[in-house]
Amino acid sequence: MTIHFVEVPDDSPVFGQTTSAFARFGHAPAIRSNGHLFVSGQIGRRPDGVPGESAEEQTELAIRRLEEILRLEGLGLGDLVDVTSYHVAIRENMSGFLAAKQRLVKAPYPAWTIIGVSGLASPELLVEIRATAAHPGDAGR
To answer: pTM above 0.85?
Structure first.
């Protein structure tokens, strides 16, 4: 089984100065293995590290980060097969989440689980999205 660790370049316009969080928290942005790309949870921070002001903005930022990691592997949002999103104050923030999700994620849709949580890694964060994509590059190895 081949394992490939994905790295986000330090000069990424989507991640900006936030790439240091991968080392600080001790995890890879994504790992490719056995025909899948496993993407770590993505949050709604702007490239300067400031979180989005609303659930809708944070969701868009998190999806754009997810999309950038997919792009680095030659994939897109259409390659997603399984997504889990975690939401603080889920009832108050669901409409903003759905607005961004519906604007950015198009059919055919991946399997998606939505979970309410009491908090995320930083108190200002409202959403985190982790995903798995099909990756044809090493299928069957």
So the answer is: yes
